[in-house]
What we know:
The protein is an alpha/beta fold and 208 residues long.
Amino acid sequence: MRVVIFGPQGAGKGTQAQRISKKTGAKHISTGDLVRAEIKSDSDLGKKIQDYNDRGDLVPDEIIIEMAKPYLAETDAWLLDGFPRNEAQAKALDDALEELGIGLDGAIAMEAPDDALVKRLSGRRTSEATGRIYHVEHDPPPEEDPGPFNQRKDDTEEAILHRLEVYYKHTEPLKDYYDERSILVSVDATKGIPEVTEDVLRAIGEDG
Ligand code: AP5
C-alpha cells in the first residue's frame, strides 16, 4: 500500500494517517513532522526552513523533496501525509517512484469547509511524549498520554488563513493531477474521526 493523503489544513490528514498506520502497519511519513523535527534539532537546515514553516509558506521544493525521498524506499507500505503539495513535487514523487520501480496505489483528497478547519486547528494539541494529535473538544488526550500537549507555532489565525490560501492555490490542483491518473478518491472529512477512518480504509481497500 503506497498512498498519498492531502487536503486543506485541519482536514485531519495527520490524525487519519496516525490511525491508519496503527491499524494497517503502513509507515506514516509526514513532511510536516520532518520539517518540525529539523527545526527542533537547531540544524543549519532547520534554521533555513523555520521562517517558511512559521509563516505558513511552503518550504522550497528542492529542500522538501530531498527530505522526503529517503523514506520512500524504507518499506513497501506507507502513507505520505503533506507531500506532494504542488505539481512540481507530484512530478518529483513520480520520478522517484519510477527510479525505485514502484507506483502509487491511491491519492486520498480529504474535503472539509474552511469554517470547520479553523475551529479544528485552534483546538489542536500535539503530545510531546507520543507525537499523537488531539483536539481539546473532539479528541481530548487520554490519561495514559503524559504530554505535555503543545500548540503548533503555525496555528495562529494569521498563519492558518495563509496556509489555506497556499493550499487552494498550489495543492488543490493535485486533485486533477491524480484524477487524470485514475487514483483519486475524495473523502468527506466533516464526519467524526472514526467514521472518516472507516471511509479512508474503504477507499484504499484495507477495510476487510
Ligand atoms: P503540515 O504539518 O503538513 O501541516 P498542514 O498541511 O498545515 O496540515 P495540518 O497538520 O495543519 O492539518 P491536518 O490535516 O494534518 O490536521 P490534523 O490531523 O492535525 O505542514 C506544516 C508546514 O511544513 C507547512 O506549512 C510547510 O511550511 C512545511 N511543509 C510540509 N510539507 C511540505 C511540502 N510538501 N512542501 C513544502 N513545505 C512543506 O487535525 C487538526 C485538528 O482537527 C486536530 O486537533 C484533530 O484532533 C482535529 N480533527 C481531525 N479530524 C477531525 C474530525 N473528523 N472531527 C473533528 N476534529 C478533527
